[in-house]
Amino acid sequence: MLVLPKGVRHMPAYLSRSAQEELVDQVRRIVQQAPLFVPAMPRTGKEMSVRMTNCGPLGWVTDKEHGYRYQPAHPVTGAPWPPI
Description:
The chain has a domain at 36-78. It is built from one helix and two strands; from the N terminus they run αββ. It has one helix at 17-33; strands at 59-61, 69-71. The protein has a two-stranded antiparallel ribbon. Strand 1 and strand 2 (69-71) form a beta hairpin. The model has no long low-confidence stretch (mean pLDDT 96).
């Protein structure tokens, strides 16, 4: 039996299969418009161990030169983040 940590709730069948598939399709469309990128640590420039993207008017990014921040454009493509 799976024991979940305190504060975690497992809600089987909360979303129907078709709703889950639609959610995955929506995320894929966002990633097509704003490809995954690897953020870097401020000061050191060491790459983080994640690939990420954003959507909406501002996206969270970080890099060696400017540190942590929210900005309106993808750091690699320069395109605006896709809408939520």
